[in-house]
Design a protein that fits this description.
Blueprint lengths: L1 H13 L20 H13 L19 E2 L4 H14 L3 E3 L16 E3 L4 H14 L4 E7 L7 H11 L3 E8 L3 H18 L4 E6 L1 H14 L6 E4 L13 H4 L4 E2 L11 H8 L10 H10 L7 H11 L8 H17 L3 H22 L4 H10 L15 E5 L8 E5 L4 E2 L9 E2 L4 E3 L6 E3 L1 E3 L6 H27 L4 H5 L2 H16 L10 H35 L12 H25 L3 E5 L6 E7 L3 H24 L10 H24 L3 H32 L6 H6 L3
Parallel strand pairs: 1-2, 2-3, 4-5, 4-6, 6-7, 7-8, 15-17
Antiparallel strand pairs: 9-10, 11-12, 13-14, 16-17
């Protein structure tokens, strides 16, 4: 590769028609296959100093035209990332990582390495030509070549060639040598195919095939090497013995080998031509074990490679140079020469274009003159549409149909549309999946939330005002006549019922889902239990007025407190059982409304939910019946007619709420629940307490004990 690079530069500089008055120079850095060393080399070139200074140029004035290299994808990737930041062009002659084809991430990167698809197609045709329809595949994989065996398998299957086995070997050869070789050898020995295709990095393929040849010595297997695994460029003495009888597939060179210019250039590399050529001295030290003039270097090489180095005489030197020359002729790398030619041609065209710049109107005319003509049967299907082949028409004559609901196509002439993930939805053009809209009844959800919040706060303040009035007039006859302790408890329960509305607003989470119905159910059950206790106390008080009545012993707060405590405890037990068995939880509904995620509360157990609602209905029904029967009792004790109407209102609201609750979805369901809570709670407040507040505030003459006792007669 080095010789090929220097030869290409020399040919370009000697060509008068290419880059006239311009001489190409070069700096050569060896990355040694190490990413850190590759990055340091790039920064040194850009800085112009031995120690890199990022973003600064400290050397003498020069013009960097571009970069050639590297051989491996790992080192090429890091250098391409750095050079893309500064806008320098780079052409690699060996990197094969598919991610380097991303023009957004690497806009200035190019390569002369043939893709997997081209070589896979050629190898498939070779197998078909010889009638080899039963083969095995060994992939000595690197991170950038993991897909090569799969690509090769796809092309083989198209030509009707079957793959008996596919072995993907680790990128780390030490794992292969520590036991993987035995497993692979057993698989190959048991196989019935005689053709084994080998793909992967050439320098790793050599190690693998040497071990496999030793294991399979009695068995006749033919190895076919893909272009990526071609070992013809490696200078190994035993290469002929190891790879005898194998097919080595390599790209056709873009220029002839062993021409007069190439041979003449290689002959000029003889050490006698330039005794101070340190590079060629290193080559002889590595290839032929010839000692150099530098004793320190000799010691380093001995310690590093554990080899025996000798002083080379003229005969050994001639033999070594002859071997290097023949190796160079056999190992010419067309990709390096092509990379240098492409870079020089691009620089030449850039210089030509700068010299021949014309006015804007001439450039526009030039573009129009060479506009590519269109030749299509039908217009291309744009993103958001898919191709629909018309029956009886040729495949290139097709119609375009928009993607179905929930699907997109993001490229032109898409065969099929792609369904978006569950949490995403197509945009208006149906060429991109975007996040679905989230729906729930928030505190800032327009007029609905504003009206519900204002109504809740208004009723809460009214309840608070009434509670303040009753506390201020707690010793007045009308407050004492209707069991003021129960009245206070009822007002507090109604106030908490109004406050429970805030649990229904905002983004539902598990804790708010559990507290919603349970909080309202317990507080409202206390309120209805207080009404039931009031009704029972009215009946008992009337019975106790008769002379010698045994009902007198039931008068007092014990009975009312017992009724409230007993009835409320049952509701608390129901709620705790519901939470223990199957509590409510947050649920994402992605199916009801297309393009929308409805965040709602799932009741968990429908039995638990309807048990809470049903128990409140049962208490209301019992209170309604008792209050209806006691409606004709004397007015001094009687709240029955107000309780009757309030329970009738409560039952009507909740009986109507059930079908509305079942027929709505999303935030509409929450609105139905809030409306039912506000209506039933406001009904209790208005029916039970507004008449008393009217008398206290506007008819104080009626708030006298004589008036209350007088109303009995």
């Amino acid at each position: 590769q080095l010789v090929e690079f220097r030869l290409a530069i020399e040919e370009i500089n000697k060509n008068p028609s290419l880059l006239p008055n311009v001489t190409l120079g070069y700096h050569i850095f060896n990355s040694c296959g190490n990413e850190i060393k590759a990055a340091m080399s790039i920064l040194r070139i850009l800085s112009g100093t031995k120690e890199p200074v990022p973003n600064f140029f400290c050397g003498r004035k020069r013009k960097i035209a571009g970069f050639i290299g590297d051989l491996t994808s790992e080192t090429t990737m890091i250098s391409a990332q750095i050079l893309s930041l500064f806008g320098f062009s780079q052409i690699s002659f060996g990197a094969s990582d598919p991610s380097l084809s991303d023009r957004v991430a690497f806009p200035y990167f190019f390569r002369t390495k043939q893709s997997f698809h081209g070589s896979a197609l050629a190898m498939s045709k070779l197998m078909k030509h010889f009638g080899w329809t039963w083969v095995g595949i060994i992939g000595v994989n690197d991170s950038d070549m993991d897909d090569e065996p799969q690509v090769l398998t796809d092309y083989l299957s198209r030509d009707g060639i079957c793959v008996e086995f596919t072995i993907k070997m680790s990128r780390y050869l030490d794992e292969f040598l520590d036991g993987g070789i035995d497993r692979i050898g057993k698989i190959i020995k048991k196989s019935t195919t005689n053709i084994i295709i080998v793909c992967g990095k050439a320098y790793k393929v050599i190690v693998v095939v040497v071990y496999l040849r030793r294991m399979l010595m009695p068995i006749n297997k033919t190895f076919v090497f893909s272009p990526s695994a071609s070992v013809i460029y490696n200078n190994v003495d035993f290469i002929t013995t190891v790879f005898d009888g194998s097919f080595i597939f390599e790209p056709y060179p873009v220029y002839p080998r062993e021409t007069h210019e190439i041979i003449d250039f290689i002959n000029r590399t003889h050490p006698s031509k330039d005794p101070n050529d340190k590079l060629f001295e290193n080559i002889m030290l590595t290839v032929c074990q010839c000692l150099s003039k530098d004793k320190i270097k000799n010691k380093v090489y001995k310690d590093l490679y554990n080899a025996h180095y000798v002083e080379c005489n003229s005969k050994r030197t001639i033999k070594c140079v002859s071997y290097i020359t023949s190796s160079l002729l056999a190992a010419l790398s067309p990709n390096v020469h092509l990379a240098v030619n492409i870079m020089s041609q691009a620089i030449h065209e850039m210089h030509t274009s700068l010299r021949e710049q014309s006015p804007e109107r001439d450039r526009e005319a030039h573009r129009y003159q060479y506009q590519i003509p269109r030749s299509q049967c039908t217009d291309s299907c744009q993103p958001g549409y898919r191709k629909a082949v018309n029956p009886g028409a040729q495949s290139c004559c097709y119609g375009c149909l928009p993607c179905s609901e929930g699907e997109i196509s993001n490229r032109t002439d898409s065969e099929n549309c792609i369904r978006c993930p569950d949490l995403e939805w197509p945009n208006d053009k149906r060429n991109q999946c975007i996040a679905k809209m989230v729906e729930f009844l928030s505190f800032t959800d327009g007029a609905i939330s504003a009206s519900l919040l204002s109504t809740t706060v208004l009723f809460f303040l009214i309840t608070l005002l009434i509670l303040g009035i009753f506390i201020s007039y707690r010793d007045s006859p009308i407050v004492r006549a209707n069991n003021r302790s129960l009245s206070f408890l009822l007002l507090v329960s109604i106030k908490l019922s109004f406050l429970s509305v805030f649990l229904f607003l905002g983004r539902p989470v598990d804790i708010t889902c559990m507290l919603r119905i349970i909080t309202f159910g317990i507080t409202f059950s206390i309120a209805v239990s207080s009404l039931l206790a009031k009704t029972i106390m009215v009946c008992v008080a009337f019975k106790a007025t008769k002379p010698g009545s045994s009902w007198r012993k039931w008068l007092g707060v014990k009975l009312s407190n017992s009724v409230v405590l007993f009835c409320s405890s049952i509701q608390i037990i129901i709620c705790m059982t519901w939470l223990a068995i199957s509590p409510p939880f947050q649920e994402l509904d992605i199916h009801t409304s297309p393009g929308t995620i409805i965040i709602q509360c799932n009741e968990g157990s429908a039995i638990g939910f309807y048990s809470v609602i049903g128990y409140m209905g049962l208490l209301a029904a019992v209170s309604f019946v008792l209050a209806f029967l006691a409606r004709s009792l004397p007015d001094s004790f009687n709240e029955a007619k107000y309780i009757t109407f309030s329970m009738l209102l409560f039952c009507s609201v909740w009986i109507t709420m059930i079908p509305a609750y079942l027929s709505t979805k999303g935030k509409n369901t929450v609105c139905v629940e809030i409306f039912a809570i506000l209506t039933s709670s406001a009904g209790l407040l208005a029916c039970i307490f507004l008449p008393k507040c009217y008398i206290i505030m506007f008819r104080p003459e009626m708030n006298q004990k004589s008036c209350l006792l007088g109303s009995k007669t």
